């Protein structure tokens, strides 16, 4: 907690500093000010969490400093230091947004009580604001709103972003992988709580295609402590990857560069997803920067080989034997075209060990690798028949959940957690069994329900949009028009005209 002490009396400042330092609370005094102008300079530089400020000060009094300081750092809280004769000023300060006031001389007990009360309030407010940001990211990722609507609310304007995705490669049962991913996500969230606050916000969510992402943001228009907090948070990710990976499951992270706008952030996400396959040759069980992994993209043979390795893993997990065996053949051809170093071969062996449970050695020749992969894939024939009913049941359960909860903010991560599988597996399985992506199925369900509701004259278009789960009427209208071919109002009018014509006839 960053604190500024502002009082024109040096003894008062020294006394307050001493009492604050003796309290067993997370307090860091970043500056002292002897007048209102110095206070504002410190607020602009540090954007502190809390300012203790005297009402009567030279150049600019406490009331003026609060009013101006709120514009410089909206999230900063203010506690007034006042005497009995200045009580009316204290009430005015509360009206301006001060959180509390303390009568001079301040006792250690009164100071601690005021701080404890503020900390509880601050913690709730901090979590609430971060939850708002996370909900925005989820809504944008799942198509429930658009960046235009969010920017109209002035919530992501002048904001910088940093993001990373987490990929788990493992041949374990889906329930075991889901447990690892869940525990990792919980630990990641606990870590994030230590860094949110001020203008630093962190979201952790699952994209519709099954990838787990974390996003940090801060205001880039100022040199804020928020950027430092986000960088420190992402700095801990590598240790967490090492902690949660084991001999049967490897977690790999791919981190973006700093993004100066939401558009840049979206481009970085797409680039991360495009590059993710290259981990199969660059190396898993580590954190990659997007620039580092991009270096492998310069060789088209390497890029092709990495995509084939991902296909091989996906077909094995989905237990599609014929596609798996065909991809083994494609893998053999790609290996012959690629000029692999010994290190790259070792990384491929490591990936196949984790993803398929197939043991290859870098020193072995291509024929030996192919024979082992073909033998490993032959086991899919027996597994395919045994697990076909379970896969269908998982998809049926997912569809039933969507049909019952389409109006809520749901995603593949939430449903996968309930079914004890990983989001990526459920997303792949859902597309395989239904022929449609998870996101498109939810959108189709919502739009079909919206068509039913629009046949009623009692609901406005905005109410219909909200009833089927869309935050923005404009975004709902855009999706409805793309799906149905006309505006919601036009659809309603067409039905009325057809109904009237039938009745007349």
TrEMBL record:
Classification via PROSITE patterns: HTH_ARAC_FAMILY_2 (PS01124), RESPONSE_REGULATORY (PS50110)
InterPro entries: CheY-like_superfamily, Homeodomain-like_sf, HptR, HTH_AraC, Sig_transdc_resp-reg_receiver
Domain of life: Bacteria
PTM annotation (4-aspartylphosphate): residues: 54
Pfam families: HTH_18, Response_reg
Record-annotated HTH araC/xylS-type domain positions: 396-494
Main location: cytoplasm
Membrane spanning residue stretches: none
Compartments in which it is found: Cytoplasm
Keywords attached to this entry: Cytoplasm, DNA-binding, Phosphoprotein, Transcription, Transcription regulation, Two-component regulatory system
Response regulatory domain: residues covered: 2-119
Name of the molecule in the record: Response regulator
Organism listed in the record: Ectobacillus funiculus
């Amino acid at each position: 907690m960053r604190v500024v002490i502002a009082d024109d009396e040096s003894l008062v400042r020294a006394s307050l500093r001493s009492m604050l330092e003796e309290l067993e609370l997370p307090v860091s005094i970043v500056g002292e000010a002897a007048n209102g102008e110095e206070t504002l300079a410190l607020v602009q530089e540090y954007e502190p969490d809390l300012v203790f400020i005297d009402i009567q000060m030279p150049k600019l009094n406490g009331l003026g400093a609060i009013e101006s300081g709120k514009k410089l750092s909206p999230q900063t809280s203010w506690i007034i230091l006042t005497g009995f004769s200045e009580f009316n000023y204290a009430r005015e300060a509360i009206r301006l947004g001060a959180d509390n006031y303390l009568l001079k001389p301040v006792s250690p007990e009164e100071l601690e009580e005021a701080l404890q009360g503020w900390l509880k309030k601050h913690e709730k407010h901090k979590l609430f604001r971060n939850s708002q940001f996370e909900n925005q990211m989820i809504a944008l990722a799942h198509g429930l709103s658009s960046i235009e609507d969010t920017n109209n609310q002035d919530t992501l304007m002048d904001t910088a972003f940093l993001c990373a995705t987490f990929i788990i490669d493992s041949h374990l049962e889906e329930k075991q992988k889901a447990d690892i991913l869940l525990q990792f996500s919980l630990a990641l969230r606990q870590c994030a709580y230590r860094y949110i606050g001020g203008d630093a916000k962190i979201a952790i969510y699952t994209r519709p295609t099954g990838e787990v992402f974390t996003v940090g943001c801060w205001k880039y228009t100022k040199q804020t402590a928020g950027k430092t907090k986000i960088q420190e948070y992402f700095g801990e990710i590598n240790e967490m990857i090492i902690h949660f990976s084991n001999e049967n499951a490897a977690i790999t992270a791919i981190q973006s560069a700093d993004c100066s706008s939401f558009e840049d952030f979206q481009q970085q996400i797409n680039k991360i997803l495009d590059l993710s396959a290259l981990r199969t040759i660059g190396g898993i069980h580590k954190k990659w920067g997007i620039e580092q992994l991009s270096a492998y993209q310069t060789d088209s043979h390497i890029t092709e080989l990495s995509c084939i390795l991902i296909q091989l893993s996906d077909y094995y997990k989905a237990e599609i034997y014929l596609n798996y065996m065909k991809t083994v053949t494609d893998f053999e051809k790609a290996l012959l075209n690629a000029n692999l170093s010994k290190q790259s071969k070792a990384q491929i062996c490591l990936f196949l060990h984790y993803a398929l449970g197939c043991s290859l050695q870098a020193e072995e020749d291509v024929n030996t690798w192919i024979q082992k992969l073909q033998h490993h894939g032959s086991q899919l024939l027996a597994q395919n028949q045994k697990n076909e009913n379970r896969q269908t049941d998982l998809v049926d359960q997912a569809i039933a959940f969507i049909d019952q909860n389409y109006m809520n903010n749901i995603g593949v991560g939430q449903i996968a957690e309930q079914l004890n599988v990983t989001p990526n597996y459920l997303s792949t399985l859902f597309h395989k069994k239904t022929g449609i992506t998870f996101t498109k199925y939810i959108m189709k369900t919502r739009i079909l329900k919206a068509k039913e509701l629009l046949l009623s004259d009692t609901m406005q278009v905005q109410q219909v949009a909200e009833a089927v789960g869309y935050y923005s009427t404009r975004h709902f209208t855009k999706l409805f028009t793309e799906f149905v071919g006309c505006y919601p109002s036009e659809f309603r009018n067409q039905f009325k005209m057809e109904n009237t014509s039938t009745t007349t006839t």
